Amino acid sequence: MTYDLVIGDRAYSSWSLRGWLLFDAFGIPLRTISARLYTDELPTLLQDFFPARTAPTMRTPEGSIVPETIAIAEELATRHPEAGIWPTDPQARATARVLAAEMHAGFVELRTHCPMNLRVSYTDCQPPEEVLADLARLETLWSWARETTKSTTPWLCGAYSAADAFFAPVATRIATYNLPVSAGAMRYVDAHLAHPSFRRWRAMGMVDGADQDFYRRDWPRRDWPGPVPLPARAVPGTESGNAACPYSGKPVTHSLELHGRRFGFCNAFCRDKTAADPEAWPAFMALYHS
């Protein structure tokens, strides 16, 4: 049996990203149930997840309802100690919990001025002093964590942990709004943008429903600063070199083209999420290199 996880729009729901990373980045199977923000979809869906009011909300295999990412992280860590959600070293684990707690509760000005949007990147968002103060606090926390845990990895407390999953939406905000941070902080942001689980989430977010007007800004745009995707594109028809979808094994109904070769999928979403970032999907890359 697997877990259920209620999520909002992947391109915009920063809390949903954090909750989903707690599964995908640690190899815990789940089934996502999505609802579009700013509609009746989410409150209607959550009627089956009482007492939850927000996304993400987890339902355990035996039916327990767990809203809020702090609670989800702790429950998953208890159930899956081998997954490494929190560091095993006591000092690193304490540091990671401090980081996750402050991220969960703070940085209101940054969240408000720079809502998560994975579909665009701007050259400048004119951050006010309150946002700059939040960025300075981030720099302090990130430097303190690395010094305290003596991390030699790209992550804050050694191996990738829940603390990093909690800061992933902030890393995307720095990328989206071209926020001013130090070179060291930007290396941490770059590590997030290149993380396999984040790339999968963003690839899905690029094709997961229409743009939400609430997140639209009129600032000048630039290219997304993360890894450049391979030049795949959706094409009409079902002609492809593979007879079955690399994800589901079902018959091909949709196709994409990459470097002159055609690959088939069982539905438009499978095709489009792959076209958005082919290298994010190991099953597709295994087919591509076969």
From TrEMBL:
CDD domains: GST_C_3 (cd03194). Gene3D superfamilies: 1.20.1050.10, Glutaredoxin (3.40.30.10). It comes from the Bacteria. Residues 12-78 form the GST N-terminal domain. InterPro entries: Glutathione-S-Trfase_C_sf, Glutathione_S-Trfase_N, Thioredoxin-like_sf. This is Glutathione S-transferase.
